[in-house]
Every structure is written in structure tokens, then in C-alpha cells.
Design a protein that fits this description.
By secondary structure, the chain is an alpha+beta fold. The protein contains 24 helices and 24 strands. The strands form 7 sheets. A 5-stranded mixed beta sheet has the order 2-11-10-3-9. Bound molecules: nicotinamide-adenine-dinucleotide and zinc ion (ZN). Belongs to the NAD-dependent DNA ligase family. LigA subfamily.
Length: 727
């Protein structure tokens, strides 16, 4: 009996030609693959996807003449990407079969036990035969015990890391399962990926492929997303998509900024030397930890269905507290010998299954769409929803991004919509439940004029956004002031959204500098609704205090396209004062660390506009801090353990190669310099360190040996360094 789906579960029955249905399913699945893997905009849930896939598998099995090598049933994942070196996996990187309920899980468990029992029975029969005996039918073969390991299914990008004699030599994405892309340059920047294993090369397999997931923490994702939003760029779709995109970057320095991490959950090709660690999966995960590779966390075990169900329940409960995206729980047979017996199917191993749930999704009603004008004039449609709980919070609004998105979703007011939370934090509309339409839904009219000032909206050239071009638009002003006073910019106490609206409505603030003129308009402030002496005092004190915020905050708050927090900090660190930034043209700005050509051009264009320069002059006259020499830094603040520190490496190293150690320094936020100066924070000295060591000692620069450096960046101690010493 088919386990998961009744055979005509919503699918056509006898009167449809199976060849036509197969073709249709293949086309649909290919399209959903592209939407899911490439565009990160799935139109159907995973469960629906799995249902279509199941149907195709069933049809292909029932009609072997329709089988085809390029069928979506034969491949996993996406496609390798053009522009990268394609690498063949020595053992294919498979998918994992999904189940969505206890019944299907119990059926999987029963299949595992049955196969193991049959195998044990075969063995017993053969042993008996060899011993010259016959095993009678009634002879009881006991069920072999099974231990299951349960791991979180991390929703990232599958990666295979190849270590040769303990050294990372290659990292390849899963690609289509048979061939993936060589992304070694970026994999070296991942947290949790040592360039060299902390193990005696003689004690580990000569070649060892460690498989796992590259991912981005939800907290880092939220930060990157906020920075990007502040810079006025289109938001990242979700953490998995950002991870995939980052791994495809050509410049590892850019990839490093995305703070990707790696968690290991398996092995691939292993050969030569001692593979003792590979007998059981659990032992292997522990071994990985000793080698310095982060294994998948919070693993549990179970030996029977009640144990599995209990463990799964507890793990699901803990999901909201995890800082990474989870799209299921993988149940795996622990013993590698049993895995051998169970074997593989074409796309997935028989010894593992993913328990999935339709998580962070809810269906609700779209009650209205409003149009917000942002600080750059961009008009964003916002969905008003009948409040619904998703992942522990109530959702009643969600951004619809732009007009194209509304069209793509074919959204109408009154529609039942499927909502999902990506990164557990950002709700978005996945799709409309078209079958539930009653005919009473009303179309959404995207405005042609600004909803605030009635100026005609302009479509951004080549883009999807519409903007209000009116510099004096109160909607833009409101957005600008909100941003100006927000925590990521000037961080002004006492200036909330309602007050901003009131200030604009009363005509008290017509531009950002006007905020600092409020102190001369005390009476008018007091006349505003709900403004007493205390609130006025708080507002004025907050504004006064913000005048001395560091220059990077002012620069951030100017709302220059592509210039968010990070860029402003880098500019302040490099130039110190706003005048110095303004004095440089696009070319010389682009020569600054962290500042690319597009950012530099945007800066130069903004400062070239006399109106903007006038604003800066107003701020100066009003007494705001425009920076000083003291704000210059040898390096912008970063948050690694070596954040902003300058290190020099010298002498003959034994544990690390020179480029490895320099990479480690950068990976942890530091800067690797070539000469020792007063500004050097550490000298890392190997054997026969010459003049640099002398200079460092004279300048009072702390000197570290390799092991001290390793400890500083959180690497485990090397077991024996002598054996590797060479010059
Ligand atoms: N909604 C859609 O339109 C759509 C489209 C395509 C795929 N999908 C979903 O994706 C599934 C297939 O995707 P897939 O082939 O990428 O497989 P998958 O992502 O469901 O599972 C396999 C992958 O899980 C990863 N993984 C994470 N943690 C793991 C752990 N602890 N142990 C083992 N593996 C772990 C592995 O890297 C492995 O490659 C479908 O079944 C469907 O649910 C949905
Ligand atoms: Zn307007």
C-alpha cells in the first residue's frame, strides 16, 4: 500500500493520458524548483511540492515506459551555476525523503526494521548453511536493535568540504547532486570551517569529505537586512537565499561580510588511513568537534517510536529559540553498518527521513492595502490583514514590496492569503488561496499619484519601484525624520512617530535641520496635542544631545542611497570629518576599504547637489558635530575577536601557512599588516623572527606565538606541532 498519499488524491483519474499528466507534472516541478532554489519565491508549500513529486514518482513507477533521465524525480536541488568550476561529487549528495506526520514516520520506522530483520535473517540462514544446518521456518530471528539520531534540518545551502591530510582543499555545493560548484574561496571565510583540522594527519583518513550546511544566523540576517534597507536597496528574500547568493560571490572578502557559518551533519567520500571514527554517526559528530568543525547542535537519540515522537516534540518546541532556520528534523540510523544494509534510493538514502511540519505559515484574510511613502519617496504597498498568529506573534501587516509583487500574487482585497515568516521575523504573503475566492474580492489599484502629496509617481528606470519625485513631499519628510531619529542613525530620544506626524502637520518641521530650530518654538510645541512641559523638555533635550553624536551617525542619517550604517562608519574611520568626505571625488572615495564604485558614485552625486550641501551647512550652523580627526580609525569597527586590530606576522610558522594565518586574522575582523608600528596590536612571531620582533619589543607591542594566536581566535590547541615543523 502506498504510504503517504491515496493514489487519486486530487489528481486526475483514468480518463487522462498518463503521458500528458507526467509531462505536465514535470513542467510544473521544474518551474517550482526554479522558483524555490533560484528565485527564493516558492508559490506552493513544501507539502504541496512533495505531493506533486510523489504523484510523478508513482506514475513513473506504474508506467516505466515514461521514465526519463532528465525527470525531476531523478535529480536533487538546483543546477550548477555558470561561471564556476563544476566538480563531480565522488559520492552523490542526495536529498532526504520527507514525512509530515507520525503515521508516515511510523511507516518509515517499520520499513527500516523490516529490512534490517530480513537482512539478519539472511545472514543467519547463510551462517546456518555454512555450518551444515537448515534453519526452519519457525526459527525466530530477533529484531535487530536500532538507534536513531535526531538532528535539526538546517535550512541553508548544502556544502561538501574535502580535507586532504587534514587540510581543506576544496568546498563544493550540492548542485544537482551529481555535480556542484567549486566555492572553496568563499568556504574559507565560513565560521566553523577550519582551514586545517585539529588532528594528527596520521590518525585521520587521508581524504575525508565533511558534509553540512552553510547558513546565516537569523540575528545576522536581520542585521544585514536592516543595513540593506537603510541603504535603500531591495531586501534579501530569506536567509537561505542570501547564503546561496553569498557563496556565489566571486570576491571572498565580500562573502566574509555576510558572516556565513557552517554546521556539519555527515560524511561523503572517505579514503585511506584510520576511519575508526566513522562507525557510528554520533561518534563521528563528536570527532568533528575535536577536529575543530562545528557539528549540528542539540542532537538527540531514540530507539523506538515513542522515543522518536517525544524527542521530535521537544525539538520542535525549541525551534523558536534557535538562531538558524530549521525546516524539519532529520531522523538518521546511527550505525553505518546498518546504513549499508539499508542502502539508497535514487534520490535519497533509506536510512534517513525528514520530519517536516508546515511551519510559520497561516492563512488569513487581506482586508486592505495601504501605500506608504518612504524616505526616498519609494511607495510601498502594505497589506492589512485579519490578525493571525504565526511563530508566536500576531501578524496584522506585511509589506507587499512593489506593484509587480501584487501582480505576481494576483492579489485582491478580501482574498484568503497564505502568510509565511521568513527568518522567523518577517511576515510575507506567499500566495492567494484562489479556490476560496467568492467573487466579492476587489482589485487593488496601485496609485499613479503620491498618496500624500498627489505628485505623479515615477517608475524607477529599469526597476520595480515607484517613487514620489517631490522633494517637499510630507510623506518623504516623515520617512526621513523617522529614519533620522531612529536608533541606527541619530538616535534621538523623545521623538516618536506620532510626534513626527504632529510636527509635520503643524508645519513646525519642513526639513531635517528644522528639528534643531524647535527650541525657539516652545510655545507652538506646547500647543500640540498631548505635549506637556515634560514631553517638550524631553524632546528638546533629546535633540540637543544628538548634536554631539559621532559624525558617522549624521552621515547615516542624511539618507544617501547605499550609505547605511556600515558604510558611514567606514567613511568616518577613513576621513574623520564630513568636510573631508565631501572633498573627495568618486574615484578617491572608491579607493577606501568597504566603499565600492556604486556607493562612491552615489556619495559624490549627493554632495554635488547644492541643495544637499546647503543642508550640511545648516547642520553646521546649528551646531551639529561634523566630525574630527579623532574619529579616524586605523580600521572600521568590526565585531570579530580581532575587530579593528592590526596584526603583523613574522618568522617561520609551523602550524599555519602564511596565507592561512592572514586569512584567519581577517576572518576574525583584524587586519594583517606587513610592518610593525605604534598602531600594531599584536606581532605573531614564529621561529627566527628577526628585526620585526626586535622592533615590536621596543615599541611595547605584545608578541604572540602561533599557539597563543590560535587560542586568541578560539582554535583548539594543536596536538603536536613538532611533527609538522618544516622550513
Ligand atoms: N515549495 C516549493 O516550491 C519547493 C520547491 C523545491 C523544493 N522544495 C522543498 O525542498 C525539498 C527538496 O529539497 P532538497 O532536495 O534540497 O532536499 P532537502 O533540502 O529537503 O533535504 C536535503 C538536504 O537537507 C540538508 N540538511 C540540513 N540539515 C541536515 C541534517 N541535519 N542532516 C542531513 N541533511 C541535512 C542537506 O544538506 C541535504 O542536502 C522538497 O521535498 C520540498 O520540501 C519545495
Ligand atoms: Zn509625495
Amino acid at each position: 500500500m502506498d504510504s503517504t498519499v491515496p493514489s487519486n488524491d486530487g489528481f486526475p483519474t483514468a480518463d487522462v493520458d498518463p503521458a500528458d499528466e507526467v509531462k505536465q507534472l514535470r513542467d510544473d516541478l521544474r518551474r517550482h524548483n526554479r522558483l524555490y532554489y533560484v528565485e527564493a519565491k516558492p508559490e506552493i508549500t513544501d507539502r504541496e511540492y512533495d505531493r506533486l513529486m510523489r504523484r510523478l514518482i508513482d506514475l513513473e513507477e506504474a508506467h516505466p515506459e515514461l521514465a526519463a533521465d532528465d525527470s525531476p524525480t531523478r535529480r536533487v536541488g538546483g543546477e550548477p551555476i555558470a561561471g564556476f568550476v563544476t566538480v563531480e561529487h565522488r559520492t552523490p549528495m542526495l536529498s532526504v525523503e520527507n514525512v509530515y506526520d507520525e503515521t508516515a514516520l511510523a511507516e518509515w520506522d517499520a520499513r527500516v526494521r523490516k529490512r534490517l530483520r530480513e537482512h539478519a535473517a539472511d545472514e543467519a540462514r547463510q551462517a546456518a548453511k555454512a555450518a551444515g544446518q537448515e534453519l526452519g521456518d519457525g526459527d525466530e530471528i530477533p529484531d535487530p536493535p536500532v538507534t536513531y539520531l535526531l538532528e535539526y534540518k538546517i535550512d541553508g545551502v548544502a556544502l561538501a568540504l574535502l580535507y586532504e591530510r587534514g587540510v581543506l582543499v576544496r568546498a563544493v555545493t550540492r548542485g544537482d547532486g551529481a555535480r556542484g560548484d567549486d566555492v572553496t574561496h568563499n568556504a574559507r571565510t565560513l565560521g566553523g570551517v577550519p582551514l586545517r583540522l585539529n588532528a594528527d594527519p596520521a590518525a585521520i583518513p587521508e581524504e575525508c569529505e565533511v558534509r553540512g550546511e552553510a547558513y546565516i544566523r537569523n540575528s545576522d540576517f536581520a542585521q544585514l537586512r536592516a543595513d540593506r534597507e537603510a541603504a535603500g536597496d531591495e531586501a534579501y528574500a530569506n536567509p537561505r537565499n542570501l547564503t546561496a547568493g553569498s557563496l556565489k560571490l566571486l570576491d571572498p572578502a565580500l562573502c566574509a561580510k555576510r558572516k556565513l557559518r557552517f554546521l556539519a551533519h555527515g560524511t561523503g567520500y572517505v579514503s585511506g588511513g584510520d576511519a575508526a571514527a566513522f562507525g557510528e554517526h554520533g561518534t563521528f559528530l563528536n570527532e568533528l568537534r575535536r577536529w575543530g568543525i562545528a557539528p549540528t547542535p542539540e542532537v538527540r537519540t531514540a530507539t523506538d517510536m515513542p522515543g522518536l515522537v517525544a524527542a521530535i516534540g521537544e525539538m520542535i518546541e525549541a525551534v523558536p529559540s534557535l538562531d538558524f532556520e530549521v525546516d524539519g528534523i532529520v531522523v538518521k540510523v546511527d550505525s553505518h553498518a546498518q546504513r549499508e544494509v539499508l542502502g539508497l534510493r535514487s534520490k535519497s538514502p533509506r536510512w534517513a527521513v525528514a520530519f517536516k511540519w508546515e511551519k510559520w505559515e497561516a492563512v488569513t484574510t487581506l482586508t486592505d492595502v495601504t501605500f506608504q511613502v518612504g524616505k526616498t519617496g519609494r511607495v510601498t504597498p502594505v497589506a492589512a490583514l485579519k490578525p493571525v498568529e504565526i511563530a508566536g506573534t500576531t501578524v496584522s501587516r506585511a509589506s507587499l514590496h512593489n506593484r509587480d509583487e501584487i501582480e505576481r500574487l494576483d492579489l485582491k482585497i478580501g482574498d484568503r492569503v497564505v502568510m509565511e515568516k521568513a527568518g522567523k521575523i518577517i511576515p510575507h504573503v506567499v500566495r492567494v488561496e484562489l479556490e476560496e475566492r467568492t467573487g466579492d474580492e476587489t482589485p487593488i489599484a496601485f496609485p499613479t499619484d503620491c498618496p500624500i502629496c498627489s505628485h505623479m509617481l515615477l517608475r524607477e528606470e529599469g526597476g520595480v519601484d515607484f517613487r514620489c519625485p517631490n522633494e517637499a513631499c510630507p510623506g518623504r519628510l516623515r520617512g526621513s525624520i523617522k529614519y533620522f531619529s531612529s536608533r541606527k542613525a541619530m538616535d534621538v530620544d523623545g521623538l516618536g512617530e506620532k510626534l513626527i506626524d504632529a510636527l509635520i502637520d503643524a508645519g513646525l518641521v519642513k526639513s531635517l535641520p528644522d528639528l534643531y530650530r524647535l527650541k525657539d518654538r516652545r510655545e507652538e510645541l506646547l500647543a500640540l496635542e498631548r505635549m506637556g512641559e515634560t514631553s517638550v523638555d524631553n524632546l528638546l533635550a533629546g535633540l540637543e544631545k544628538s548634536k554631539s553624536q559621532p559624525m558617522w551617525r549624521l552621515l547615516t542619517s542624511l539618507n544617501i542611497r547605499h550609505v547605511g550604517n556600515t558604510v558611514s562608519r567606514a567613511l568616518a574611520g577613513e576621513f574623520g570629518t564630513l568636510d573631508e568626505v565631501m572633498r573627495h571625488d568618486a574615484d578617491s572615495l572608491a579607493a577606501t576599504d568597504e566603499i565600492g564604485g556604486i556607493i562612491a558614485a552615489s556619495l559624490a552625486a549627493w554632495f554635488a547637489d547644492p541643495a544637499n550641501r546647503a543642508t550640511v551647512e545648516e547642520f553646521r550652523a546649528l551646531g551639529l558635530n561634523l566630525g574630527s580627526e579623532a574619529e579616524k580609525k586605523p580600521k572600521a569597527e568590526t565585531d570579530g575577536v580581532l575587530g579593528g586590530k592590526s596584526l603583523v606576522v613574522t618568522g617561520t610558522l609551523t602550524r599555519f601557512k602564511r596565507d592561512e594565518i592572514e586569512e584567519l586574522i581577517r576572518e576574525h575582523g583584524g587586519k594583517a599588516s606587513s610592518s610593525v608600528s605604534k598602531r600594531t596590536d599584536y606581532l605573531v612571531a614564529g621561529a627566527r623572527a628577526g628585526s620585526k620582533l626586535a622592533k615590536a619589543e621596543k615599541a611595547g607591542v605584545p608578541v604572540l606565538n602561533e599557539e597563543e594566536f590560535a587560542a586568541l581566535v578560539g582554535l583548539p590547541a594543536a596536538e603536536s606541532t613538532e611533527s609538522k615543523a618544516e622550513t
